[in-house]
């Protein structure tokens, strides 16, 4: 099992480093901070980074049998619950933004305004808060006050005194993700129709938007599968403890870490403008960028940080 922990820590360190680079890139460029698609992208980077860090800490504490104060565990569990919903909702919002940009290009500028963007972010965080508030309120109502002073092995399971609490939470999660998956499927179908009807010069952009939506749907599917994991783990627990620990670590890597690690790869590195600026920061402003000048010729230049964003990639 020690090897599982080492692999987990290595994966977490790599993707946290990548996320931090992308967050730095987003914050340093005003053009990114004022563009709806990049703002929504940041709403996956920040929650995903926080969730990866906290869940990794929780898993390591459980593995090494380290007990923490119940109130601290309660706070961490509520934050994890909140962050686990915000990021998928941001993915859905990104799909809707691509749908509007591709299928309603003339209305995109009117819909994607600072006011509507701020309202959308507020609604997104309010929706994400429903389940954490439910978990916190019901748990504090049912848990005896003397238990609040104890030390526990931190898991969200310690907040559930009655079996129906976890059942209600899981049902709400599944409803959330099924609705979100339905919205993503709707945007995919609409963009696919637009791709078929698009002219040859617009087809490249439309097809890229189609692939992005499809990858986001895959992310949501992985996130949805994590709610099946507790049932599988509970069945294995009665068979073999060692196998149970291995399955739990595998589920953590596949259905919690993996969906959160895909966002930088899907959106950040695939986005042309963002990836150019990101590479300049990675190479400290000495990134050599090649772009087409004519149909059969290519020009390469060493971009500095201030000019990288202004180049248009073919």
From TrEMBL:
Pfam family for this entry, one: 7tm_1
Predominant location: membrane
Subcellular compartments: Membrane
GO MF: G protein-coupled receptor activity; odorant binding; olfactory receptor activity
GO cellular component: membrane
Keyword Glycoprotein: no
Span of domain G-protein coupled receptors family 1 profile: 18-267
Keyword ATP-binding: no
Keywords assigned: Membrane, Transmembrane, Transmembrane helix
Gene3D superfamilies: Rhodopsin 7-helix transmembrane proteins
Superkingdom in the source lineage: Eukaryota
Transmembrane spans: 6-27, 39-62, 68-100, 121-143, 173-192, 213-232, 252-269
SUPFAM superfamilies per UniProt: Family A G protein-coupled receptor-like
Protein name: G-protein coupled receptors family 1 profile domain-containing protein
Origin species: Denticeps clupeoides
